[in-house]
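pipeline: protein-struct stage 2 | run 1193 | ATP-binding protein
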Amino acid sequence: MTSRIAQLHTALVAGLVVCLAAPASYAATILPRSAEQLTAYQAKSHLAGDQVQILVSRWFGQIRESDVDGSIAAIEFLRGAPSTFLKLAIQKLRDSDVLDRVFAAANDGQKDRLRNSPAINDNRLRDLLWRDHLAMLRAALAEKSDAGNTTALFLIANVNAMQLLPGPIAEEYLNALQDDALNDQLRDEIAAMLRGRWAELRPQKETLAAWLKAGAAGSAAADARRRLALSVFARLGEPLSDAEIDDVAADNPADFLAVVAARRTVAQAHVSQLVDILRNVSDPGLWTAANAALRASDPAALSAFYSGLDQQAAAMWSPAILDRLIRSADPQEATVFNNWTAAGTAIDCDGVRWRLSLLQRQASARDLRFGQAWDLLTKAAVCENDLSGEIDDALTSIGGDELPSLLVDALDSDGPGQLANMTSVLPQVSRSMAGLLNDRLANRDLAAAEWLMDIGIIPTDQGLRQRNYWSSPASGERLDVIDLRALQVMSAPPPEALLTAKTLAGSDGAGVAIRSAALMALAAHAPAKEKAEAFLSAVESGNAAIARPAIILLAQTYDEAKPGAGLSLPEVDVMGTMRTWPDVSADATVLLKTLVRYDANFARDYADSLDGGAYALEPGNKCLTLAESPTIDARLLAPVLNIAVGNADVASQNLALACVATLSRPGAATALLSEAWRNIAATDPTIALKALKSLWEVEGFREVASRELEIKIGQIAGRLAQSAPLSTEAMSALSYWKHELAAIDPAEAQTISTELNKRRLFAFLALVPSAIVVHLLLWGLLLTAYPRFAWIQAVVFWNPIMRRILGLGYIDLVLLHLGFARRRIYAPFKSSLLGDILSENPNQLDRISYFTDSRVWHRPRVDARHTGAANSISADQPILQALSRHRGRVLLLGKSGLGKSSFLRFSLAARARQDRDVIAYLRADQCRNGVEAQLEERLNGLARGNDLLSAMIYAGRIFIYIDGYNEVDLATQDAITGFLARYPFANVLVASQIPLRGFSTIETFEMIPLTGETIRDFLVSREPVLAESVPVRGELFDKVAVSFLADVNARPRDDAEKKAFDDILSNPMDLTSIAILLGDGRTPDLFALEAQQLEGVVQKLAATDQKFRTAALSNALLEQRLQDQENLQKLPFQPEVAALVTSKLAIVRTDADDAGAVAAQEIRFRHDRIRDYFTHFAFLGFTAEKQAEFAEDARFAGVFPYLARALPQSEAEALRERLITRAADLEDHRVSDSFVREYSWRQKISAQDPAWLPDYDVPEVRESDNRLFELTRRRQEIDEEVNANRDLISRSRAMTRILAAADPNFLRDAAVVIFQEMGGDLELGDEGASKALLRSPDGISFRVVGLSQPQAIKSFHVEVLVARFTGSNTIPFIVTNARALEDPLTRGEDLDPRDRQALLSVGAYVISARALYDAFLQAHGQTSHDQFWHFVFPTQKQTGTSA
């Protein structure tokens, strides 16, 4: 054996002699000097790039508010996760609000788990849950008790777990400091915390400035506020006065030094404070900063500070400050240290440092100082850290040229002592001592050489080669560990030397020390492939003393190499054996972890080695190690699932399932199992069952799966199978799991068996629909033949009993819901349902020319499901678009003559031609016996039994249109509204001039009168309706019509006339009358259109020697209307009726059957206004009392405006008073208002007498005129007083309503009123519609913008404003009002802090409506409004300039 060792030594020497000439290498110093000093290896994570992205994406997908427990598990999964994964995962959380949403969805227990989550707190994610922190803080502060203070202190400590301090939280803590009664400890803790967060208090500078300005005021609370403000301003670099800087220096050195760093001149004026910091500060960094500042500003003061030092006083300073004190002194200042001593016992590393610095700065004898340093390092020190740099500098500096002799004497006398435990490397000392070490190695004085190497001396390659150290060793001498240690520290050993070391490492004949040293040499220099072979050989030797360092070094080798490097890998069974050795099992597990990425078998072994306890401590580390496996499959994840099922605690289960979900490809069996385990219904049960089956059949999965896991999978499969749809696939899955679980879980197998039997029964019953299909085919044939065969109609369809028998009870449902069948069955009744809508009626004006540009306003319905919609009115829209095919119950509301009936006839005729819907058109006067009765009458036999018709109406399968609601008596109106109430889901449209009685919340479309160009367009469009014989037609009519409108608009008129003219010209019916008069060559009188047309009729009739019997016709018409009838053809006035038809005041309406034959015919007035005009002649003969009685009948409401024009003045005024009294009694002002309005116009127009006319009055008239003037004056005074009070209320309410403003424009306008009330002025030149550009009394120009919503304000609203004002030169003043319908006392904050910050970033001022109104109330009634404007613009100095 001795001979073999000698041969190996000779080979080693021959190999090393070539490479040792190179300079000494320090690259290998990352390895300890010996294998015994090796510590357990910490494997690195190799996750990177796209793989991390994919894993984080899967992990992030588990965090959702619908699965709070799963989300908590995913968050806790971050414990121990590799930094690459952790960094991206945290960024994902910060880029979204998902954590906040999960917290909002959590129950109290779950919220506590999130608050106390190590993953959240350790990664400083608590700021993502800032709303919870804010709510708890407010509650704790509001409690004002010891318990509340304790909670607040706990919350302050939690701020350390926030990466950023959210603005609202910072603001709340600042608000808390405003409370002078705040607990002292709590105040101090808040101030200390905020002082540490100074950078995040920049937005609060205004508040801090106010505190600073207020001063301490003899109050501890005020003093704390001022000190905090000083601290923050000092850190932010804000300007401070000299006195304030003195206060900062006295209060906090760090803050003072921040001021000094920002303003160098401060140091010169505050030298004494800097000296105080040097004397008293305990922070080394602050001491260094103060030292540097003092040396730059006043070196003499610093020298004086040094001259006054003594070691006893300096003992109060920390070792780190002492070290800096000694090192920073200049040579003159350092003389003070000559009397200091470096003696001591049990000196730690910091103590060693400053003592070495001291010995270098002292001027005593070199040998004395070197001896003190040597005793310090070898005897007094207890430090084992690597202080190579400090020791190297100290020994070189102290020893100087005498270093070799001093060091040899000390080493030979005392040995390396404690210095050998510091694993130091001393390159500067080595340059002086390498020659001596080379000599001792060459002379085989290995003990002495070892001492030199123990203290960190490195031999040189050149020196050893010159001494032939490697080529001529003593014959037969044993190879020593020192030789291999020399090889370890070399820079570039030759391959032969490493091969020799490899041989030694694997030699069973070599001693443990030799083999261990050889392993260390190989670890320092050999290629990875050779290292792996050597270390594997040592591991397989079976010697634990050799195996442990080999395992550690092998783990490092695998961890630093790439899987494709071709390294030798251990056998799987060898790895299993190693993990059973007590001394190396932990290191073997680490080695196995490094092998995961090399081979899936090692990954599976590593997964098998996991246990629940270790996994729970570092789930991210353990799980994501598996992610490095070349293959991630069910077999690999089975042990993790075993961990899940082995935990009774649901949270621990979810933690393991989070790993499975993260490692599983979306849609994989394990991913679906993870979701199903947690009852996440994200996947179709059939797909999940397939996945579980495939998982169950994966090779090797069930071999690893525990029995508990098998049972769990079976239970999940059973639950999924029960929720799967009825299908053969689902029944096959049930049968499979019944068989598979029979032996594992008989109870679950029985449950599945029961479900399977149920489904088989259902499958049998599913055959029934086949018979139904045949039955439906039969009914399809019947429907096809239905229109052609009367006997099928009568016997089958119109007979409810036979229809139910042949239809097996369900055919009515088919007819109800199947559009084709429904239209087919109602086809024979189309004509009767639509009446004259289907007939051509060429004399009906809307058929000749319909004006398509009429528009409506839309008011949505108001009910419990549409709260707050009552005031919501959309923009106007074309009526043909808005009501092309309405849904639900709708009111078409509009004044007389605006075109409601014309629209219905035109649009329904078009829809009837499309034949897509079943439509019924009814006049209100046809519904006296009820709407259903009228429909039954029109449907003949089909409606017998009424149930099918009622079902059709209720389900909205028939579109019903009722015209002229206001023209019938109250009983008929009640019948119509009762019909609407009975059928809440029916599609019914009612056209009326008045709202429906008892249905004020119905969805309403209100006709809009014509305006502007539309009036001209409509009038010109009436040319086609003129008779062929009229003298003015074609282009001439167009010219005359335009000229007439121009003439009307050019006439001088007051407001009353203008309003009256506009009211007439905006009415399509009146414009049609104007067109007819213009066509006849007459000039229309706007206030006598009907009279002019009647005059024309009278003249035409007189030309035939016939008289128009106006009064008699009117009385007959009244009698007919009282009977709810209207058919002029039935009146004994044929000449008059014929003349009315010729003059287009009446029209002939014809109902045709399906064959086109005339079924019925009637003559009606063209419009109800014309009918009312002819009716009013009968009323002229009544007394005022009787006339007033008719006012209560809605059918005659349109007569009274004509009475206001026609009655003598005294009678008109008497009737007016009766109508006003009646309106007050009945609380119904419609008739009285129309009468008063028309009479008022009559008075104003008739009162336009020349100024000279009263001079010709008789005396009694003059006297009456004077009395009338006096009465009018008194009445005017009363009216003015009433109006003044109304105006006061109105003006005040205009500002108060800012609290309820949900519309941004209304909110803006209300804010503008407040600003004007407080002295703000509208800017000149702002001619926009908003008029929101204002200037404050001190000259600040700003634009008011409203930002309000009935609910919460969304971020996109803010984004629009940010985009609008980015780069704007105008200061935007944003007034917010979120949740405007709630009481202001119950609302939260209007804006999310991020949204508020976004607005502030573009220079906007942001204030809530509540705060603005509160400021207004406080300033209201005060002589000065300065307080209000200072509140509004707290950061402006009111200089009169705008930002």
